[in-house]
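Closing statement on the arginine sub-project.
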Amino acid sequence: MSQATNQSWGGRFSEPTDAFVARFTASVTFDQRLARQDIQGSIAHATMLARVGVLTDEERDTIINGLTEIQGEIERGEFNWSIPLEDVHMNIEARLTDKIGITGKKLHTGRSRNDQVATDIRLFMRDEIDVIEAELVRLREGMIELADREADTIMPGFTHLQTAQPVTFGHHLLAWQEMLTRDHERLLDCRKRVNVMPLGAAALAGTTYPIDRHVTAELLGFDRPAENSLDAVSDRDFAIEFTSFASILLMHLSRMSEELVLWTSAQFDFIDLPDRFCTGSSIMPQKKNPDVPELVRGKTGRVYGHLMALLTLMKSQPLAYNKDNQEDKEPLFDAVDTVRDCLKAFADMVPAIEPKKDSMYEAARRGFSTATDLADYLVRNGVAFRDAHEIVGQSVAYGLKTKKDLSEMTLEELQQFSATIEQDVFEVLTLEGSVAARNHIGGTAPDQVRAAASRAREALAALKGDA
Ligand code: ARG
C-alpha cells in the first residue's frame, strides 16, 4: 500500500481522504481560535499523567516545553496551520511531535479529541464569560451613576408609546438597569455549568489508564470533573445556555437602542449622543445618525439566529459525540464577539448620554400626564374612583378643545367638572408634585430613585465576580 493516509487515524484506511472531503470535514480554519485553551488543557493533562506515573517527569517536561514553544509560534503568527491535519488538536499535536519526536506521541494517552474539544470550548467560554461580565459590570455601573445624577429630571412616561404619567429620567434608567441585573445573574448561573471538566471521558467511555481527574480539574480551575463520560463528550447545553443569555441580553439592549434612537430624533428631542457615537450622511449634510444603537438593535437578530442554530444542532442527537458538534463553534464564537462588542459600545455610550431636560419637561407637560393625579386628588376628597375617572375625562376633553393642559386651567374652569376641586389641586397638577407623590419602593419619586440607585450599587458590588 503506497498511498499516504492520515497520520493520526489512517492505519485502517486503504486510500487517502478525498481532497474535497478533507476540506469539508476540517475545522482548523475556525477552531484554531481554541489554540490557547488546547495547549492549556494539554499541559494539565501531561502534568496529571506524570503525577499518576503514566509519563515520566522528564517526558512531561519535554512535552510542556514543546507546547510552550508552540504557543509562542502561534502568538507570533509563525505557526503553519494545515487543513489535512483537520483541526486545532491534531495541528498542535503534529507540531509537537515534529519538535520533540516520539515523546510528543505520548501526550494523547488516555484522552480523545472528543473530551479534548469539549474541554477546550468550556475553557474558552469561561474566559469569554469573564470578559463579558466585566463589560456588563461597567455598563451597569455607568447606568446607575447616570440614574443617580438624573433622579430629579422629569420626562413623560409612556404606555402604548402615548404619554401616560410623568416619571424621572433616573427611574427610566434604573428600569434598564433591572433588566441588566437579571442578565448578569443569568450569565453567572451559566458560568457554573460551563465550569465542569469533560477531560478524562476520553472518546466516550472513560479510559483504562489510572488517571486522576480531580488533579486535572484543579490544574485547569474547573469546579469538578463531569460526572458521566457519555454526557461529558456530547453535552453542548452550556453553549445553548450562553446563547440564551446572549439573546435575552441583546433583546434588552435592542429595547434600549430603540428608545435611544427615538429620543435623538427631532420629534422627541429628549437626548443628545456625542458625535463620536454617531455618523453622518453622504448626501444629507444636516444628518447625525444614531448608528451605534441602531447597529446593536440589528445585531440582536444574528444572536437569536445562533441560539436557533445550536438548539437545532443538538436536537435528536444520540449519545455520545457526533461530528455534528463541530458546528457548535462558529455560532458560539460569533455570539461571544457580538455580545462583547455590543456591551462595550453601550458601556462607553451610556455615561455620555446628554439629557435635554427642558425638552423632556415640556413633553411631560403636554399630553395631560397628570390626569391620574387629578383623579387621585378627587378620590382623596371623597369621590369614588370611577366617578373621578369620568370627571377627569371631561376635563381632558375640555383641555383638548381649548388647547390647555390641566395645570393651565383656572380653578373656575376645573370646577365646572367637580365642585370638590379646590385651590390645593394645583399642588398635584405640577409635574414635580406628581412624581414626588409616588414615594414608595419601586416608585418614581426622586428620593426613591436615589435610594434605589444606592441599593443597586450595593447589589452589583455583591454580585460582581460571584462565580
Ligand atoms: N474538530 C472536532 C470538533 O470540533 C474535534 C473532535 C473530533 N472528534 C472525532 N472523533 N472526529 O468537534
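The chain has a mean pLDDT of 95. With this model delivered, the sub-project is considered complete and its resources will be redirected to Aim 3.
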